[in-house]
Amino acid sequence: MVEAIPHEPTSDEIREAIRVVEDPEIGISVVDLGLVYDITNDNGNVVVSMTLTTPFCPIGPAIASQIETIVSEMPGVKSAKVEFVWSPPWNPRTMASDEAKDMLGIW
Description:
29% of the residues lie in helices and 21% in strands. The chain has 107 residues and is of the alpha+beta class.
């Protein structure tokens, strides 16, 4: 019997999986806030490049841990890592989804 090899998840599939991770101070998904800048998958080794609402955010490590756990449990993923980047700086007016802007009262 041949065992099926799981496909490597796409960036969109990973983005959708981590949509459940919220910034606990705001209560909105880090994806909808526009904090996730890039997702790369190199042969099952996933790197999520993201920022935080502020470089001094005390819950950054907890958010990274949540994302790494979710992604590492996806079929086809060998490793998962979050890298924080600070450029460009986060701007909810240009980076957040329309739904997040509505929740934040930005228009």
